[in-house]
Amino acid sequence: MLASALALAAFAATAASPRTLAARGSWAAFDRMSQCEAVTRALLPEDVRRPATVLTFLYDRSGRRNGELSIRFRRPLREGSSVILTVGQQPFDLIARGQAAWSRGPAQEAAIVSAVRAASGARVTSRDQAGRRMTDRFLLNGAPTAIDAAAAACAIAPLRP
């Protein structure tokens, strides 16, 4: 699992120069100055040539995002397809467009974070453009630490390098 966190850190380093806040289990948290994120990748993608589905909790210093859930899928979604995130046994209907899905607002975001704290795993299910069912699974070990680190970091002014 430490390898997963290190792989996430390497992935994030290519997108920008974030400051690593925490890495535990299969999760990592990063501070990107204007926003902070807790992030993990799906287990065992069906096609290792494609990037894995990525699940992220986003926070920003403006307060506009305070635990917004974002999922970037490995393949584009079918137009009008529903996306269901199941944390433990609790399902959440997400907003989907293109190759991504998001939480529906602050109340749902708080419920998802609460469910993540109590569960050991999650899965997200949808359909790709060809109508094939996609299911990605995520481990939640380390998620509370990463979420708390991201939330705390964006609650204060950014540190200058």
Write the layout of secondary structure elements.
Elements: H1 2-15, E1 19-24, E2 27-31, E3 35-41, E4 54-60, E5 66-72, E6 83-87, E7 90-97, E8 100-102, H2 106-118, E9 121-127, E10 133-139, H3 143-154
Describe this structure in words.
By secondary structure, the chain is of the alpha+beta class. The protein is 24% helix and 39% strand. It has a single domain, classed as Immunoglobulin-like, CATH 2.60.40.1880. The chain has a ten-stranded antiparallel sheet, with helices on both faces. The longest helix has 14 residues. The N terminus is likely disordered.
- Low-pLDDT stretches are 1-14
Biggest pleated-sheet summary:
10 strands, antiparallel
Query: Under the CATH scheme, which class?
Result: Mainly Beta
What portion of the residues fall into strands of 2 or more residues?
A: 35-45%
Whole-number count of domains: 1
Q: What is the CATH topology?
A: Immunoglobulin-like
Helix content: 10-25%
String of helices and strands = HEEEEEEEEHEEH
Ends distance: 29 Å
For the secondary structure, the number of strands is 10
Question: What's the average pLDDT?
Answer: 87
Class computed from helices, strands and strand pairing? alpha+beta
Shape category: globular
Question: In what order do the strands lie side by side in the largest sheet?
Answer: 1-2-3-4-5-8-7-6-9-10
